[in-house]
Description:
- This protein is mainly α.
- Helices cover about 65% and strands about 0% of the residues.
- The longest helix has about 35 residues, at about 5-40.
- The N and C termini lie far apart (about 60 Å).
Amino acid sequence: MRPSLQPYHASMTKVLALMALIGAIGYVLIRIRARLQGGVRALGLGAAARPTADTGAACETPGARPAPDLARRARELRLAGHKTEAVKLVRDETGMEWDDAERFVRTLR
């Protein structure tokens, strides 16, 4: 390599390494988001938090277990300051692990 290109090559190598690191972090974040959304969808709870525009009733997710009542009850417990009871309720009715149930309760609005 010509001596005049050595500084350019070194900086480009660093830029490419940084881009690879950013890409890897982005991939991990996308996988985490997909896992979190998948858990909510599998329980049929993602649609339960969004009322339909025409009736105001909870949307049903085709093929998923309908549980809008669970989401409502867990939300009410959390908002009343009973986070542990809300997590226990979600675990008892869904069979989720503690961490997953806690994450779900945190996402309820």
